[in-house]
Amino acid sequence: MKLVGIFYNPRPERALPLAGVIALWLKQQGLEAEIATTYQAAESPFLREADLLVTLGGDGSILRVARAAAPYATPILGINLGRVGFLTEAEPDMWKDVLLRALAGDYWIEERMMIKAAASRDGQELVQATALNDVVVGRGERARVVYLRAEVDGGYLASYAADGLVVATPTGSTAYALAAGGPILPPELRNIVLVPVAPHLSMERPVVLSEGVIVRIVVAGVRRAVLAVDGEVKAELVGGDEVMVGASPYAARFARVQEQTYFYKTLVERLVPRDHTSGL
């Protein structure tokens, strides 16, 4: 390992100082270290050459860096400065212990499926993007439901009157899809999950699909919708616009020092309310 890239979320006050401390420590270990914000990840010149990427932030920071790093298959190690930290590897006070193990080769690589989306209007592409969590076609900030038609591999699945339709990866199954009532999938699976958001007189059940399918979502009627990828709005959609979603050829790669069953422990820590009065 020669070069470590450090991406920090500029919002937490401690992120930049911690990035400097880690960079200095890495240089003392005889390595090169480069620093940039998570918002600069896609344009960072060292992204291609880095052997490891360290993120300082929450899951949103990792999502940005994962999308940028996926074409280069560079592993990511997340230090949690956010609220949830499903994707991060360690808390801030453990960064040195975790990095020592990573530098010594005492880690394993976890690959997570990603999906790609392309929106088009009258046969002309509007935008394309890759997601680690999810692709959502929804109402955005508007107060009325949108009407959507969903197809799987060219066959009709369902029509929805809903706040939106989430197309999620196993990673995204613990994000917006979970809040909308979807199932939790272990991260090593390679499936696509469709979850309607607040459906009205429509099919309410989520659907788990195989990796190889293509999901086509058509905006029906005259109401506008928005396309969001990993929570970022990418396009405004009008009636007749369509969004095609399928598996990406890229995967997000994470450097893990935790045991390979860490995901279930994380679920309990992050999702199960604890009765602090009973000591549980």
Task: Outline the structure in words.
The protein has 2 domains: 3-107 and 257-271, Probable inorganic polyphosphate/atp-NAD kinase, domain 1 (Rossmann fold, 3-Layer(aba) Sandwich); 114-249, Tumour Suppressor Smad4 (Sandwich). 17% of the residues lie in helices and 40% in strands. The chain is built from 5 helices and 16 strands. The chain has helices at residues 15-28, 59-69, 95-103, 176-179, 262-271, and strands at residues 3-8, 32-37, 52-57, 76-80, 108-121, 124-131, 134-138, 146-152, 155-162, 164-168, 191-197, 207-210, 215-220, 225-229, 232-237, 242-256. A 6-stranded antiparallel sheet has the order 6-5-16-13-8-9, with helices on one face. It has a 6-stranded antiparallel sheet with strand order 12-11-10-7-14-15, with no helix packed on it. Strands 2-1-3-4 form a 4-stranded parallel sheet, with helices on both faces. It is elongated and about 60 Å long. The model is unreliable at 274-280 (pLDDT under 50).
Please sum up the structure shown.
This protein is of the alpha+beta class and 280 residues long.
Bin the helical content: 10-25%
CATH class of the largest domain reads Mainly Beta
Total discrete domains: 2
Count all strands and give the number.
16
Low-pLDDT segments: 274-280
Number of helices: 5
The CATH homologous superfamily of the largest domain is named: Probable inorganic polyphosphate/atp-NAD kinase, domain 2
Structural class by SSE content: alpha+beta
Averaging pLDDT over every residue, what do you get?
A: 94
Sheet-strand content, in percent, reads: 35-45%
Radius of gyration: 20 Å
Provide the succession of SSEs. EHEEHEHEEEEEEHEEEEEEH
- Provide the spatial order of strands within the biggest beta sheet: 6-5-16-13-8-9
At the fold tier of CATH, the topology name of the largest domain is Tumour Suppressor Smad4
Distance between the termini: 42 Å
Largest sheet: 6 strands, antiparallel
What is the CATH-assigned architecture of the largest domain? Sandwich
The shape is elongated
